[in-house]
Amino acid sequence: xxxxxxxxxxxxxxxxxxxxxxxxxxxxxxxxPTCAAEALSRLQLKRMTQAAGHRFSPxxxxxxxxxxxxxxxxxxxxxxxxxxxxxxxxxxVLMLVPASVWLQRSRSxxxxxxxxDLHVSTLASANPVDVLSSDRHTVKPWFQGKLPxxxxxxxxxxxxxxxxxxxxxxxxxxxxxxxxxxxxKHQISxxxxxxxxxxxxxxxxxxxxxxxxxNTETWTKGGLWYFVxxxxxxxxxxxxxxxxxxxxxx
Amino acid sequence: xxxxxxxxESFETLAMPMFASLFNFAHWLTHNRExxxxxxxxxxxKALKGFVSFQQGTNFRAWMYRILRNTFLTSRSGLSVKMTVxxxxxxxxxxxxxxxxxxVLLVRADQQMVQDALERLPVxxxxxxxxxxxxxxxxxxxxDIVGIPIGTVMSRxxxxxxxxxxxxxxxxxxxxx
Lengths: 250, 177
Description:
Chain A is of the alpha+beta class. Chain A is built from ten helices and six strands. The radius of gyration of chain A is 23 Å and the shape is globular.
């Protein structure tokens, strides 16, 4: 049996209906089991295609090759000012400090500031997490098929921490998990990405802590790169990090 | 000189965030990592060169995908695709309603099966499904990239989804036998 509304269902789930049509279709779906089942099955297929379609990742070497081919040789503007000031003050110092160290540090600070931005914008969002659950056995499987890796979450029952949920995030063009925890009134973001050379070079610089008043921890384990960031105390951030480090697959 | 540098800087800022998605799309088109890399590389070089003519404020993402797709169609494996342009019947946009058993079977399909089904789709159907479901583009954006009317986008999507369902149902039945 078919219904005259079936042709609208693809438009409905692809977000192609006007507000008026959307209300009409939703009203119809509540009263027509055929269309409701059909819409569900189509949506299911769309989600499956979505998950299956994110399949091929470029190699880091290839990414670097392309990035280099479109990058202009430049230095951040502040670097010029610093360079000028330093040159005037003590040219000798400039000669002793390799330029690469400065560039490395600026890149590292930029990247970490980007993660701090992600953390802040998540907290500011009306829907901070895509999967809302304090149960690690709900949150972890939610990422299955959405990320090219898996990770373990610790048992928190005897700790002051509470899992709020998780969301899919992107950092430097790679997908990863952002988990949101709570301790007291403070929220803690835990970012997990596949480890790459660029990531493991990022050290949670103390300058970021000073500038943005965040406490951070970072480490790599089992091919994954972890980054914990929060306005909670350094002690709490470290405690949660230790729990995460010791999490096993149970 | 300064203008040129600003151009290149903004090109990099706009184009690099979509690198992984473009690669994924290229790989689905070519079925081959090496060819996908060549395709992406050529796309970035062409786009960088043509960035001066790109109109600020228009859809940059659609523009990049259009370049990639056109580049693909002129490549060796793309040329064979060109010979097999489907006959689009726009009246067939409803898609066949599924009978319940098939919907039930869908639940038992896994990611590998969906990937196989996508691989087996003719490229003209595969590309609209990828742009719609994976890249989450609007019908209008897809129409612009592929260079077909919106009605044709809808009919290709519908036929592509129908084929995937049928391929999955076939697979699941095969496995459970």
